[in-house]
């Protein structure tokens, strides 16, 4: 390990769950071994999942460093990481959350390792990235362009790649219509990405701040629907106007992505989706309630979508860099970590919270 890497570092750890806050501690800097590389963290995002870890929802082994959204500079390579040539010391990278995928299960061999049931997830069941230095897998790193800041790159590793993979899963053609229900961290990136991919985009939320934020983007949705003021019937009438002249087909959007937890938002979004359309779930509410009529009489298909792999992350980063897609960021320093959690609870919050070092 290079001599300018210190022996100790500051880290935000979950000591016991449920806890309201992290504990700011001094811990040893981990060593880069095997297939892993050591990052000097530039920025790490706070995600809804981090709050679930603090609440104890995952039964994680504690103590644990929080966050699963890292971006930083490679400062040391494990022996294997050196031979793969995937990254080198000095590279600015964003990295995906899993560590230690098993390499042996059916998904690692034939499917997509993101479904590996044996992997450890940084910030969830192994140390994450709210620390000055942290380990990531070399193969899960993607080099970011010089034009992209660490605080813009960090949210792409979970929120960004998750919504990107969900849009890709909808498999729509340019000109077709996608609705993104919930314009928080995922949804506000998603409306910009879907627009950049040539889709017509309907953004749906019921809170004024996220609606205003979506309207302010250069890549703003073709239609913004305030679910607190609009009936599904009125919304569908507006959606019909997005179709080209002479359109023959069903009324409503071709696919809908559910990014928000409130059950009322799901029912509203299903009512906007055309017959034989698709609904893709990325939200993780404690329970789901759907009306069978939407699935039987509307012939909707519901599927879930998990984050993404390194190919998806590379595509996400390229798309955001090329199209100037940005998250609305609120930055906090490690010493202001309690303020960061308090700010996250606020009703009128919009965009993404990121810890910077
Ligand atoms: Zn996340
Ligand atoms: Zn596996």
Automatic annotation (TrEMBL):
InterPro entries: ADH-like_C, ADH-like_N, ER, GroES-like_sf, NAD(P)-bd_dom_sf
GO cellular component terms, A-Z: cytoplasm
Protein's UniProt name: Enoyl reductase (ER) domain-containing protein
PANTHER family per the UniProt record, alphabetical: ALCOHOL DEHYDROGENASE 1-RELATED, VACUOLAR PROTEIN SORTING-ASSOCIATED PROTEIN 11
GO molecular function per UniProt: alcohol dehydrogenase (NAD+) activity; metal ion binding
Enoyl reductase (ER) domain segment(s): 10-281
Alphabetized Pfam families for the sequence: ADH_N, ADH_zinc_N
Similarity section: Belongs to the zinc-containing alcohol dehydrogenase family.
Taxonomic superkingdom: Eukaryota
UniProt keyword Metal-binding, yes or no: yes
Annotated keywords: Metal-binding, Oxidoreductase, Zinc
Cofactor: Zn(2+)
């Amino acid at each position: 390990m290079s001599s300018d890497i210190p022996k100790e570092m500051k880290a935000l750890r979950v000591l016991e769950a449920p806890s309201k806050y992290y504990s700011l501690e001094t811990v040893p800097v981990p060593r880069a071994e095997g297939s892993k590389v050591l990052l000097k963290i530039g920025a790490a995002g706070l995600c809804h999942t981090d709050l679930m870890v603090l609440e104890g929802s995952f039964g994680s082994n504690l103590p644990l460093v929080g966050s699963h959204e890292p971006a930083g500079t490679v400062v040391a390579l494990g022996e294997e990481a050196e031979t793969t040539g995937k990254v080198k010391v000095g590279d600015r990278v964003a990295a995906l959350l899993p560590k230690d995928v098993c390499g042996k299960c059916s998904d690692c061999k034939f499917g997509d390792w993101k479904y590996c049931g044996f992997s450890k997830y940084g910030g969830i069941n192994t140390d994450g990235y709210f620390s000055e230095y942290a380990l990531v897998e070399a193969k899960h790193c993607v080099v970011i362009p010089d034009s992209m800041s660490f605080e813009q790159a960090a949210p792409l590793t979970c929120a960004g790649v998750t919504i990107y993979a969900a849009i890709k899963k909808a498999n729509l053609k340019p000109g077709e219509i996608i609705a993104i229900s919930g314009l928080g961290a995922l949804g506000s990136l998603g409306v910009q990405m879907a627009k950049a991919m040539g889709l017509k985009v309907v953004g749906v939320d019921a809170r004024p701040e996220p609606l205003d934020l979506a309207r302010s983007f250069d890549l703003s949705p073709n239609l913004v629907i305030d679910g607190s003021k609009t009936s599904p019937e009125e919304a569908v009438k507006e959606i019909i106007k997005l179709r080209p002249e002479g359109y023959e087909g069903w009324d409503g959007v071709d696919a809908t992505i559910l990014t928000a937890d409130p059950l009322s938002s799901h029912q509203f979004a299903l009512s906007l989706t055309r017959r034989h359309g698709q609904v893709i779930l990325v939200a993780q509410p404690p329970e789901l309630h759907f009306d069978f009529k939407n699935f039987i009489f509307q012939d909707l298909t519901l599927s879930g979508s998990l984050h993404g792999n390194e190919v998806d992350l590379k595509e996400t980063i390229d798309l955001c860099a090329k199209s100037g897609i940005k998250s609305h960021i609120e930055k906090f320093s490690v010493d202001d970590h309690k303020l960061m959690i308090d700010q996250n609870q606020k009703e009128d919050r919009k965009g993404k919270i990121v810890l910077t070092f």
